[in-house]
Amino acid sequence: MPKKELTTLIAVYPKTLLQKIFLGVPVGLLYAVSLAYNKGYKVKIIDQRIDKFWKESLKKAIKDAHQPRILITTMTGLQIKFALEIARFVKKTNKRITIIFGGIHPSVLPYETLKNKNIDFVVIGDGEETLVELTETLDVDGDLSKVKGIGYKKDNEIIINERRNPFDLNKTLKVPYELIDVNQYTGAIEEKDEFPVVTGRGCVYNCAFCTNTAFKKNNFRKVPLNIIIENIKKGLEFKMKISILDDLFFYDEKEIIKFCDEVEKEGIKTEFFANSRMDFIAKSEIQTLKKIKKTGFKRIYVGIESGSQRILDSVGKGITINQILQGNRKLKKAKIKPSYSFMVGFPTETFDDVKKTISLMIRLKDENPQATILGLKILSLYPGTTLFEELKKTGYEVPKKLEDWIYFDYMEPHNPWLTGKDKKKLQRICLITYFLNEGIQKHLKNRFVKFLVEKYRFVADFRCRHHIYYFAPEIALFKQIKSMQKE
By C-alpha distance, which of 372, 27, 349, 395 is closest to 185? Predict the structure, then answer.
């Protein structure tokens, strides 16, 4: 008896705002399909960011597939626009094809997502097991109500099933990198040739602006060390640096020492990039930080957020200004280069709070010249975060349609406590601090614009030290930079 042909999953990654600057491997999508792929399902990956002829590619994939099902992942913001474009195209090609939406936005707002006529299912939370169970159930026309972690439509009614527990990362399989051409991707954090590795998911902290707060139950999990090492070795096959994408890689000092020891034992020689909290750095022994540097962590990314202790406390950041300063000094001593990010536009924030943040930016750079200041960004409100849920209680009108969320991103702040005048002022200040980052010209091709940026940095530094933010001709320069990035 011939073996039954399995369903084909066609996973599509939509465009984002960032592909002109950073083009990272769609590692979340690869993880989502990994279990299905290892169970023998055919999987095809189409990345709209790199495939100019994605419509033709998608048409061909559908034509060649046995019982195709389309998986589209999206986060809040402009990516929704392109995700919906893909969904419309598929339904126009064949309205009977099943379309499944996954990712952070559909997970937080499954009901609203399913209101869209072109979306048949939503996978909520981790997708590995849910996607397999959903596919198996659809294959035999089974009972969808028994599939945990999905939303779907039945008789014109939207049904949201019981949530599935977070995926046990001890079951993590090899990431199917063979489904893509890794060499087409330039990296997600620092420079070209970065290979993404996930060593854990979730976070134990409660920052009010972070989407991790939408998934607090059993949220923080670590991938087994042997699998982490395997994935790092895969990146080395491509001769790439290793970019660790976790929100909370640097968490337990003993575990980090164990990781460094294993990297050394395996003879792994590469450069690592990762995110850290400043309280971890401040509390760590200097010998641990030197060991981290020796392992290959030449640069670490740290979210400082604010220079006002009142604001840090109000958003539950859980760090102090003293820890920030102490951590900066320790990183200098360990010769690890930090990149610091900051935000403004918080609820109750005053201009004095903003000035404290900018003063801290300058102080960190003065005390550690190896530090990179990534500039200010205006706080973005995302559904599911503590800030957003608190805002809803005040009567804030939440977007009712999926399409209405398209412009909810860091480029378009929707913070109702900010007046139009406030937004313009903060945008002007953010643009000035943008030029404090000496690394921005790396992405510029135009030599004249590079020259202007380099010279203007001294002006931006002077402005920030003396809090002079009126009359900002740099806005025109910024627009020129953005246009150069699109070339």
Answer: 27
Q: How many CA atoms lie within 13 A of 231 on its CB side?
A: 26
Write the single-letter amino acid at 137: T
- CATH 3.20.20.70 is right for the domain spanning 173-485: yes
Q: Which residue, 248, 235, 368, is CA-closest to 303?
A: 248
HSE toward the beta carbon, residue 482, CA cutoff 13 A: 11
- Find the range with the poorest average confidence among 6-15, 183-192, 256-265, 275-284: 183-192
Supply the pTM of this predicted model: 0.90
Q: Where along the chain do its domains lie?
A: 8-160, 173-485
Burial class (CB in 10 A: 0-12, 13-18, 19+), 328: buried
Residue 442's Cα: distance from chain center in Å?
A: 21
Residue-by-residue DSSP string for 218-287: T--EE--HHHHHHHHHHHHHTT-EEEE--S-SB--HHHHHHHHHHHHHTT----EEEEE-HHHHHHS-HH
Sign of CA dihedral 219, 222, 224, 227: positive
Distance CA 191, CA 194 (A): 7
Quick one: fold of 8-160? Answer: Rossmann fold (3.40.50)
HEC-encoded secondary structure of 105-145: HHHHCHHHHHCCCCCCEEECCCCHHHHHHHHHHHHCCCCHH
Structure-token match 């991103």, residue found: 409
